[in-house]
Design goal:
This protein has one helix and three strands. By secondary structure, it is α+β, with helices and mostly antiparallel strands. It has one domain. The longest helix has 54 residues.
Length: 128
Amino acid sequence: MHDRNQVNGFTLVELILVLIIVVTIVAFSVPKYVKLTVDARKSAVISIAGALGASNALNYSIRHSNTNEGIAISNCANLATLLAGGLPTNYVVTPAVVAPGTSVVCSLTDIPRSGEKVDASFYAFGVS
């Protein structure tokens, strides 16, 4: 025989406790996720700025040994042509004149669709 008064399922208190636990977990994990994405964007900008600086140094030495090879660099904005595939979307190199035989500090900026922009600096060596 089955008891007709027997009820299967969760009580309201149990459901509320589970809901409180889930909300608490979300409340602590969302700020961590946001911080991780900001840190990842900063790391990406620094990495690309490092690649621009390294490719410029390599181009400078190649161009110095043979003026028929490499690319003449007279502006920070020219450095994007040194990367295979160019700069990623939303990245901008701030234009700055670089005289041959001198160096300047250039700026790379990630301008996202949302959030704050992120900057990184690198050196550019001018070569004719």
